[in-house]
Amino acid sequence: MVEIAVIGAGYVGLTCAAGLASLGHNVACADIDADRIAGLQQGRLPIHEPGMAELVQRELRTGRLDFLVGAAEASARAELHFMCLPTPQGPDGAADLTYLLGAVAEIAPVLAPGSVVVNKSTVPVGTAKLVATSIGRDDVAVVSHPEFLREGSALADFLAPDRIVVGGADQDAARRVAKLYAEIGAPVLQTDAESAELIKYASNAFLATKLTFVNEMAEVCEQVGADIDDVMLGMGYDKRIGTAYLQPGPGWGGSCFPKDTEALLHIAASAQVEFDFLRNVIALNGRHLARVAGKVTAMLDGDVRGKRVAAWGLTFKAGTDDLRESPAIAVLRLLAEGGADIVAYDPAVTGPPERLPHVTIATNPLEAALDAECLVVLTEWPELAAVDLDELAAAMRRHRVVDARNLLDRDALVARGFHHAGVGR
Protein backbone atom coordinates (compact mmCIF):
# COMPACT_ATOMS: atom_id res chain seq x y z
CA MET A 1 0.00 0.00 0.00
CA VAL A 2 1.34 3.40 -1.03
CA GLU A 3 0.19 6.87 0.01
CA ILE A 4 -0.67 8.72 -3.22
CA ALA A 5 -1.82 12.24 -4.04
CA VAL A 6 -3.66 12.79 -7.30
CA ILE A 7 -3.68 16.46 -8.25
CA GLY A 8 -6.62 17.22 -10.51
CA ALA A 9 -10.09 15.67 -10.34
CA GLY A 10 -10.85 15.77 -14.04
CA TYR A 11 -11.23 12.84 -16.40
CA VAL A 12 -7.68 11.50 -16.03
CA GLY A 13 -7.39 12.36 -12.35
CA LEU A 14 -10.61 10.63 -11.36
CA THR A 15 -9.73 7.51 -13.32
CA CYS A 16 -6.26 7.36 -11.77
CA ALA A 17 -7.54 8.04 -8.25
CA ALA A 18 -10.28 5.43 -8.36
CA GLY A 19 -8.11 2.92 -10.19
CA LEU A 20 -5.15 3.24 -7.81
CA ALA A 21 -7.46 2.97 -4.80
CA SER A 22 -8.96 -0.20 -6.24
CA LEU A 23 -5.43 -1.63 -6.41
CA GLY A 24 -5.16 -1.20 -2.64
CA HIS A 25 -3.40 2.15 -2.32
CA ASN A 26 -4.48 5.10 -0.20
CA VAL A 27 -5.36 7.99 -2.52
CA ALA A 28 -6.13 11.63 -1.80
CA CYS A 29 -7.49 13.36 -4.92
CA ALA A 30 -7.35 17.16 -4.89
CA ASP A 31 -8.86 19.90 -7.01
CA ILE A 32 -9.33 23.67 -6.74
CA ASP A 33 -13.06 23.40 -7.53
CA ALA A 34 -14.76 23.21 -4.12
CA ASP A 35 -18.17 22.34 -5.59
CA ARG A 36 -16.70 19.48 -7.59
CA ILE A 37 -14.94 18.11 -4.51
CA ALA A 38 -18.10 18.40 -2.42
CA GLY A 39 -19.97 16.36 -5.01
CA LEU A 40 -17.24 13.75 -5.24
CA GLN A 41 -17.15 13.35 -1.47
CA GLN A 42 -20.79 12.30 -1.81
CA GLY A 43 -20.01 9.98 -4.72
CA ARG A 44 -21.44 12.29 -7.41
CA LEU A 45 -19.32 12.44 -10.56
CA PRO A 46 -18.92 15.45 -12.87
CA ILE A 47 -18.26 13.19 -15.88
CA HIS A 48 -20.04 10.35 -17.65
CA GLU A 49 -17.88 7.21 -17.69
CA PRO A 50 -19.24 3.65 -17.47
CA GLY A 51 -18.55 2.04 -14.09
CA MET A 52 -16.78 5.07 -12.63
CA ALA A 53 -19.49 6.19 -10.20
CA GLU A 54 -19.81 2.70 -8.74
CA LEU A 55 -16.05 2.36 -8.27
CA VAL A 56 -15.67 5.80 -6.67
CA GLN A 57 -18.53 5.10 -4.27
CA ARG A 58 -17.04 1.73 -3.35
CA GLU A 59 -13.57 3.12 -2.68
CA LEU A 60 -15.02 5.96 -0.61
CA ARG A 61 -16.65 3.33 1.58
CA THR A 62 -13.38 1.41 1.99
CA GLY A 63 -11.64 4.60 3.11
CA ARG A 64 -8.89 4.19 0.52
CA LEU A 65 -10.14 7.17 -1.51
CA ASP A 66 -10.63 10.72 -0.33
CA PHE A 67 -11.28 14.05 -2.05
CA LEU A 68 -9.76 17.33 -0.86
CA VAL A 69 -9.70 20.98 -1.87
CA GLY A 70 -6.17 22.14 -2.61
CA ALA A 71 -3.12 20.29 -3.88
CA ALA A 72 -0.87 21.09 -0.91
CA GLU A 73 -3.13 19.36 1.59
CA ALA A 74 -3.19 16.15 -0.47
CA SER A 75 0.54 16.16 -1.16
CA ALA A 76 1.56 16.83 2.45
CA ARG A 77 0.73 13.24 3.40
CA ALA A 78 1.79 11.39 0.22
CA GLU A 79 4.95 9.84 -1.20
CA LEU A 80 3.88 9.70 -4.85
CA HIS A 81 2.19 12.69 -6.47
CA PHE A 82 0.27 12.18 -9.73
CA MET A 83 -0.09 15.41 -11.68
CA CYS A 84 -3.32 15.12 -13.70
CA LEU A 85 -3.83 18.70 -14.83
CA PRO A 86 -5.26 19.97 -18.13
CA THR A 87 -2.73 20.90 -20.81
CA PRO A 88 -4.89 22.74 -23.35
CA GLN A 89 -3.67 23.76 -26.77
CA GLY A 90 -2.12 27.21 -26.81
CA PRO A 91 -2.41 29.75 -29.65
CA ASP A 92 0.73 28.37 -31.32
CA GLY A 93 -0.39 24.73 -31.08
CA ALA A 94 1.88 23.95 -28.13
CA ALA A 95 0.53 22.46 -24.92
CA ASP A 96 -0.15 25.11 -22.28
CA LEU A 97 1.55 24.06 -19.01
CA THR A 98 0.10 26.85 -16.85
CA TYR A 99 -2.11 24.57 -14.74
CA LEU A 100 0.60 21.95 -14.29
CA LEU A 101 3.33 24.36 -13.26
CA GLY A 102 0.94 26.22 -10.97
CA ALA A 103 0.12 23.01 -9.11
CA VAL A 104 3.80 22.05 -8.95
CA ALA A 105 4.62 25.40 -7.34
CA GLU A 106 1.87 24.80 -4.77
CA ILE A 107 3.04 21.34 -3.68
CA ALA A 108 6.82 21.88 -3.88
CA PRO A 109 7.22 23.29 -0.33
CA VAL A 110 5.31 20.39 1.30
CA LEU A 111 6.86 17.44 -0.55
CA ALA A 112 8.46 14.94 1.82
CA PRO A 113 12.06 13.92 1.13
CA GLY A 114 12.11 10.97 -1.25
CA SER A 115 8.86 11.97 -2.93
CA VAL A 116 8.24 11.22 -6.61
CA VAL A 117 6.29 13.69 -8.74
CA VAL A 118 4.57 11.83 -11.57
CA ASN A 119 3.64 13.73 -14.74
CA LYS A 120 0.46 11.92 -15.81
CA SER A 121 -0.79 14.76 -18.02
CA THR A 122 0.08 14.72 -21.72
CA VAL A 123 3.03 17.09 -21.83
CA PRO A 124 5.74 18.15 -24.33
CA VAL A 125 9.21 16.67 -24.42
CA GLY A 126 11.33 18.26 -21.71
CA THR A 127 8.51 18.80 -19.20
CA ALA A 128 9.96 16.38 -16.62
CA LYS A 129 13.15 18.45 -16.54
CA LEU A 130 11.11 21.66 -16.41
CA VAL A 131 9.11 20.37 -13.43
CA ALA A 132 12.27 19.22 -11.66
CA THR A 133 13.78 22.67 -12.13
CA SER A 134 10.59 24.28 -10.82
CA ILE A 135 10.67 22.12 -7.68
CA GLY A 136 14.38 22.80 -7.21
CA ARG A 137 15.08 19.96 -4.79
CA ASP A 138 17.62 17.15 -5.04
CA ASP A 139 15.58 14.90 -2.74
CA VAL A 140 12.52 14.83 -5.03
CA ALA A 141 12.41 12.86 -8.29
CA VAL A 142 10.26 13.58 -11.34
CA VAL A 143 9.10 10.90 -13.78
CA SER A 144 6.91 10.87 -16.87
CA HIS A 145 4.06 8.34 -16.80
CA PRO A 146 1.69 9.03 -19.73
CA GLU A 147 -1.93 7.91 -19.68
CA PHE A 148 -3.53 5.91 -22.49
CA LEU A 149 -7.20 6.15 -21.53
CA ARG A 150 -10.06 6.00 -23.99
CA GLU A 151 -13.25 7.74 -22.98
CA GLY A 152 -16.02 5.20 -22.57
CA SER A 153 -13.58 2.46 -21.49
CA ALA A 154 -11.24 4.36 -19.17
CA LEU A 155 -11.45 1.98 -16.22
CA ALA A 156 -10.78 -1.06 -18.37
CA ASP A 157 -7.85 0.74 -19.96
CA PHE A 158 -6.45 1.66 -16.54
CA LEU A 159 -6.88 -1.75 -14.91
CA ALA A 160 -5.98 -3.84 -17.97
CA PRO A 161 -3.61 -1.62 -19.99
CA ASP A 162 -1.77 -2.62 -23.15
CA ARG A 163 1.40 -1.25 -21.56
CA ILE A 164 2.69 0.83 -18.69
CA VAL A 165 5.24 3.49 -19.63
CA VAL A 166 7.42 5.18 -17.01
CA GLY A 167 10.43 7.33 -17.81
CA GLY A 168 12.86 9.42 -15.84
CA ALA A 169 16.47 10.11 -14.99
CA ASP A 170 16.01 8.41 -11.60
CA GLN A 171 15.34 4.79 -12.51
CA ASP A 172 14.65 3.80 -8.89
CA ALA A 173 11.85 6.37 -8.82
CA ALA A 174 10.50 5.02 -12.10
CA ARG A 175 10.49 1.50 -10.66
CA ARG A 176 8.53 2.70 -7.63
CA VAL A 177 5.82 4.02 -9.94
CA ALA A 178 5.77 0.87 -12.08
CA LYS A 179 5.48 -1.27 -8.94
CA LEU A 180 2.06 0.28 -8.20
CA TYR A 181 0.65 -1.90 -10.97
CA ALA A 182 2.44 -5.14 -10.01
CA GLU A 183 -0.75 -7.17 -9.66
CA ILE A 184 -1.99 -6.12 -13.11
CA GLY A 185 0.78 -7.91 -14.98
CA ALA A 186 0.89 -5.55 -17.97
CA PRO A 187 4.08 -5.05 -19.99
CA VAL A 188 6.23 -2.29 -18.49
CA LEU A 189 8.46 -0.02 -20.54
CA GLN A 190 10.93 1.82 -18.34
CA THR A 191 12.78 4.46 -20.32
CA ASP A 192 14.05 8.04 -20.21
CA ALA A 193 11.64 10.90 -19.59
CA GLU A 194 11.92 12.31 -23.11
CA SER A 195 10.93 9.02 -24.75
CA ALA A 196 8.04 8.52 -22.34
CA GLU A 197 6.77 12.03 -23.06
CA LEU A 198 6.91 11.44 -26.81
CA ILE A 199 5.24 8.00 -26.77
CA LYS A 200 1.79 9.42 -26.01
CA TYR A 201 1.98 12.01 -28.79
CA ALA A 202 3.32 9.47 -31.27
CA SER A 203 0.57 6.97 -30.40
CA ASN A 204 -2.26 9.45 -30.85
CA ALA A 205 -0.76 10.84 -34.06
CA PHE A 206 -0.51 7.33 -35.49
CA LEU A 207 -4.10 6.47 -34.55
CA ALA A 208 -5.32 9.72 -36.09
CA THR A 209 -3.35 8.85 -39.22
CA LYS A 210 -4.95 5.41 -39.32
CA LEU A 211 -8.45 6.89 -39.10
CA THR A 212 -7.67 9.42 -41.82
CA PHE A 213 -6.37 6.63 -44.07
CA VAL A 214 -9.63 4.73 -43.60
CA ASN A 215 -11.68 7.79 -44.55
CA GLU A 216 -9.47 8.37 -47.60
CA MET A 217 -10.03 4.76 -48.64
CA ALA A 218 -13.76 5.21 -48.02
CA GLU A 219 -13.81 7.97 -50.61
CA VAL A 220 -12.04 5.69 -53.07
CA CYS A 221 -14.59 2.95 -52.35
CA GLU A 222 -17.47 5.31 -53.08
CA GLN A 223 -15.99 6.17 -56.46
CA VAL A 224 -15.19 2.63 -57.59
CA GLY A 225 -18.21 0.81 -56.13
CA ALA A 226 -16.41 -1.08 -53.34
CA ASP A 227 -17.57 -1.50 -49.74
CA ILE A 228 -15.27 0.03 -47.12
CA ASP A 229 -16.39 -2.40 -44.42
CA ASP A 230 -15.29 -5.39 -46.49
CA VAL A 231 -12.07 -3.69 -47.56
CA MET A 232 -11.13 -2.90 -43.95
CA LEU A 233 -12.13 -6.39 -42.81
CA GLY A 234 -9.82 -7.85 -45.42
CA MET A 235 -7.02 -5.57 -44.29
CA GLY A 236 -7.62 -6.26 -40.61
CA TYR A 237 -6.94 -9.97 -40.94
CA ASP A 238 -3.34 -9.04 -41.68
CA LYS A 239 -1.62 -9.30 -38.28
CA ARG A 240 0.76 -6.50 -39.25
CA ILE A 241 -2.23 -4.15 -39.57
CA GLY A 242 -4.86 -5.38 -37.09
CA THR A 243 -8.54 -4.50 -36.86
CA ALA A 244 -8.47 -1.56 -34.44
CA TYR A 245 -9.20 1.94 -35.73
CA LEU A 246 -10.25 0.71 -39.17
CA GLN A 247 -13.81 2.03 -38.98
CA PRO A 248 -14.80 4.91 -41.27
CA GLY A 249 -16.57 7.92 -39.82
CA PRO A 250 -17.14 11.65 -40.10
CA GLY A 251 -13.56 12.40 -39.01
CA TRP A 252 -11.69 12.24 -35.74
CA GLY A 253 -11.92 14.62 -32.80
CA GLY A 254 -12.28 14.57 -29.03
CA SER A 255 -10.17 15.96 -26.24
CA CYS A 256 -6.89 14.30 -27.29
CA PHE A 257 -6.34 13.77 -31.02
CA PRO A 258 -6.73 17.38 -32.20
CA LYS A 259 -4.55 18.98 -29.53
CA ASP A 260 -2.00 16.16 -29.41
CA THR A 261 -1.41 16.15 -33.17
CA GLU A 262 -0.99 19.93 -33.14
CA ALA A 263 1.32 19.69 -30.13
CA LEU A 264 3.47 17.08 -31.89
CA LEU A 265 3.72 19.38 -34.89
CA HIS A 266 4.94 22.12 -32.56
CA ILE A 267 7.46 19.77 -30.91
CA ALA A 268 8.80 18.78 -34.32
CA ALA A 269 8.99 22.38 -35.53
CA SER A 270 10.83 23.39 -32.37
CA ALA A 271 13.41 20.74 -33.24
CA GLN A 272 13.62 22.04 -36.84
CA VAL A 273 11.80 18.99 -38.21
CA GLU A 274 9.22 19.54 -40.98
CA PHE A 275 6.50 17.01 -40.17
CA ASP A 276 4.55 17.56 -43.40
CA PHE A 277 3.03 14.09 -43.22
CA LEU A 278 1.21 14.83 -39.96
CA ARG A 279 0.27 18.32 -41.13
CA ASN A 280 -1.45 16.72 -44.14
CA VAL A 281 -3.27 14.22 -41.92
CA ILE A 282 -4.77 17.10 -39.92
CA ALA A 283 -5.79 18.94 -43.09
CA LEU A 284 -7.38 15.82 -44.59
CA ASN A 285 -9.44 15.28 -41.44
CA GLY A 286 -10.93 18.73 -41.92
CA ARG A 287 -11.78 17.81 -45.50
CA HIS A 288 -13.63 14.68 -44.40
CA LEU A 289 -15.72 16.66 -41.92
CA ALA A 290 -16.71 18.96 -44.77
CA ARG A 291 -17.49 15.94 -46.97
CA VAL A 292 -20.15 14.75 -44.55
CA ALA A 293 -21.79 18.16 -44.52
CA GLY A 294 -21.58 18.13 -48.31
CA LYS A 295 -23.46 14.84 -48.46
CA VAL A 296 -26.30 16.32 -46.45
CA THR A 297 -26.37 19.35 -48.73
CA ALA A 298 -26.46 17.09 -51.78
CA MET A 299 -29.38 15.14 -50.29
CA LEU A 300 -31.24 18.43 -49.96
CA ASP A 301 -30.85 19.43 -53.59
CA GLY A 302 -27.72 21.48 -53.01
CA ASP A 303 -29.12 23.95 -50.48
CA VAL A 304 -29.81 23.43 -46.75
CA ARG A 305 -31.13 26.93 -46.11
CA GLY A 306 -34.39 26.81 -44.12
CA LYS A 307 -34.55 22.99 -44.27
CA ARG A 308 -34.96 20.86 -41.20
CA VAL A 309 -32.07 18.47 -40.56
CA ALA A 310 -32.25 15.83 -37.85
CA ALA A 311 -28.94 14.88 -36.21
CA TRP A 312 -28.38 11.73 -34.20
CA GLY A 313 -25.35 12.13 -31.98
CA LEU A 314 -23.40 15.13 -30.69
CA THR A 315 -20.61 13.66 -28.55
CA PHE A 316 -17.33 12.81 -30.25
CA LYS A 317 -17.92 9.09 -29.61
CA ALA A 318 -20.46 6.83 -27.92
CA GLY A 319 -20.17 6.12 -24.21
CA THR A 320 -19.19 9.65 -23.17
CA ASP A 321 -20.75 13.07 -22.68
CA ASP A 322 -17.64 14.80 -24.04
CA LEU A 323 -18.33 17.40 -26.73
CA ARG A 324 -14.78 18.73 -27.00
CA GLU A 325 -13.69 18.95 -30.64
CA SER A 326 -16.53 16.61 -31.58
CA PRO A 327 -16.73 15.77 -35.31
CA ALA A 328 -20.51 15.91 -34.94
CA ILE A 329 -20.36 19.52 -33.76
CA ALA A 330 -17.98 20.43 -36.59
CA VAL A 331 -20.31 18.95 -39.23
CA LEU A 332 -23.41 20.58 -37.77
CA ARG A 333 -21.69 23.95 -37.55
CA LEU A 334 -21.08 23.79 -41.29
CA LEU A 335 -24.74 22.98 -41.88
CA ALA A 336 -25.86 25.73 -39.48
CA GLU A 337 -23.68 28.24 -41.33
CA GLY A 338 -25.54 27.20 -44.47
CA GLY A 339 -28.86 28.04 -42.83
CA ALA A 340 -30.10 24.57 -41.84
CA ASP A 341 -32.67 24.21 -39.05
CA ILE A 342 -31.09 21.52 -36.87
CA VAL A 343 -32.80 19.32 -34.29
CA ALA A 344 -30.45 16.92 -32.53
CA TYR A 345 -30.65 13.99 -30.15
CA ASP A 346 -27.86 12.52 -28.06
CA PRO A 347 -28.49 10.35 -24.99
CA ALA A 348 -25.70 12.10 -23.06
CA VAL A 349 -26.57 15.71 -23.98
CA THR A 350 -29.48 17.64 -22.48
CA GLY A 351 -28.85 21.18 -23.71
CA PRO A 352 -27.50 23.02 -26.76
CA PRO A 353 -23.70 22.73 -27.07
CA GLU A 354 -21.74 25.92 -26.45
CA ARG A 355 -20.32 25.88 -29.98
CA LEU A 356 -23.75 25.23 -31.51
CA PRO A 357 -26.13 27.35 -29.43
CA HIS A 358 -29.01 27.51 -31.90
CA VAL A 359 -29.53 23.77 -32.26
CA THR A 360 -32.75 22.37 -30.79
CA ILE A 361 -32.26 19.37 -28.49
CA ALA A 362 -34.84 16.58 -28.71
CA THR A 363 -35.62 14.09 -25.95
CA ASN A 364 -35.53 11.00 -28.20
CA PRO A 365 -34.43 10.02 -31.72
CA LEU A 366 -37.91 10.08 -33.27
CA GLU A 367 -38.66 13.52 -31.86
CA ALA A 368 -35.48 14.78 -33.53
CA ALA A 369 -36.57 13.21 -36.83
CA LEU A 370 -40.09 14.63 -36.78
CA ASP A 371 -40.76 16.54 -40.06
CA ALA A 372 -37.05 16.39 -40.96
CA GLU A 373 -36.02 16.47 -44.60
CA CYS A 374 -32.75 14.66 -43.91
CA LEU A 375 -31.30 12.66 -41.04
CA VAL A 376 -27.54 12.64 -40.41
CA VAL A 377 -26.08 10.02 -38.05
CA LEU A 378 -22.91 11.34 -36.39
CA THR A 379 -22.26 9.31 -33.22
CA GLU A 380 -22.36 5.53 -32.98
CA TRP A 381 -24.69 5.15 -29.98
CA PRO A 382 -26.02 1.54 -30.05
CA GLU A 383 -29.57 2.63 -29.17
CA LEU A 384 -29.76 4.59 -32.42
CA ALA A 385 -29.29 1.39 -34.42
CA ALA A 386 -32.30 -0.08 -32.60
CA VAL A 387 -34.79 2.64 -33.63
CA ASP A 388 -37.82 1.25 -35.45
CA LEU A 389 -37.30 2.22 -39.09
CA ASP A 390 -41.02 2.17 -39.89
CA GLU A 391 -41.56 4.75 -37.16
CA LEU A 392 -38.62 6.73 -38.51
CA ALA A 393 -40.16 6.72 -41.98
CA ALA A 394 -43.48 7.88 -40.59
CA ALA A 395 -41.86 10.72 -38.66
CA MET A 396 -39.74 12.24 -41.43
CA ARG A 397 -41.05 14.60 -44.10
CA ARG A 398 -38.56 13.33 -46.71
CA HIS A 399 -36.77 10.02 -46.57
CA ARG A 400 -33.11 11.05 -46.73
CA VAL A 401 -30.36 9.59 -44.51
CA VAL A 402 -26.65 10.38 -44.38
CA ASP A 403 -25.10 7.78 -42.09
CA ALA A 404 -21.59 9.00 -41.27
CA ARG A 405 -21.01 6.01 -38.98
CA ASN A 406 -22.51 3.23 -41.15
CA LEU A 407 -24.61 2.45 -38.08
CA LEU A 408 -28.06 1.85 -39.56
CA ASP A 409 -29.20 -1.08 -41.69
CA ARG A 410 -28.74 0.25 -45.22
CA ASP A 411 -30.79 -2.46 -46.94
CA ALA A 412 -33.69 -2.01 -44.51
CA LEU A 413 -33.69 1.73 -45.11
CA VAL A 414 -33.67 1.34 -48.88
CA ALA A 415 -36.50 -1.20 -48.65
CA ARG A 416 -38.56 1.50 -46.95
CA GLY A 417 -37.92 4.01 -49.69
CA PHE A 418 -35.05 5.95 -48.10
CA HIS A 419 -32.30 7.58 -50.10
CA HIS A 420 -29.19 6.50 -48.20
CA ALA A 421 -25.60 7.77 -48.22
CA GLY A 422 -23.08 6.06 -45.99
CA VAL A 423 -19.31 6.30 -45.81
CA GLY A 424 -17.32 4.21 -48.24
CA ARG A 425 -20.34 2.59 -49.86
Task: Tell me what you see in this structure.
The protein is globular. The chain is built from 17 helices and 14 strands. The termini are far apart. The longest helix is centred in the middle third of the chain and has 32 residues, at 193-224. It has helices at residues 11-22, 34-41, 52-62, 71-75, 98-107, 127-135, 154-159, 171-179, 193-224, 228-236, 257-270, 276-299, 327-337, 365-369, 382-385, 389-395, 410-415; strands at 3-7, 26-31, 65-69, 80-83, 116-119, 141-144, 164-167, 188-191, 308-312, 341-345, 360-361, 374-377, 400-403, 419-421. It is of the alpha/beta class and 425 residues long. The strands form 3 sheets. A 6-stranded parallel beta sheet has the order 3-2-1-4-5-6, with helices on both faces. Strands 11-10-9-12-13-14 form a 6-stranded parallel beta sheet. Strands 7-8 form a two-stranded parallel ribbon. Strand 1, helix 1 (11-22) and strand 2 form a beta-alpha-beta unit. The model has no long low-confidence stretch (mean pLDDT 95).
Estimate the helix proportion, in percent: 40-55%
Shape: globular
The major beta sheet can be summarized as:
6 strands, parallel
Into which percentage range does the β-strand content fall?
Answer: 5-15%
What is the count of β-strands?
14
Q: Termini distance?
A: 54 Å
> Count of helical segments?
17
- Identify the strand order in the major beta sheet: 3-2-1-4-5-6
Average pLDDT score: 95
* Cα-atom radius of gyration: 23 Å
Low-confidence stretches: none
The structural class is alpha/beta
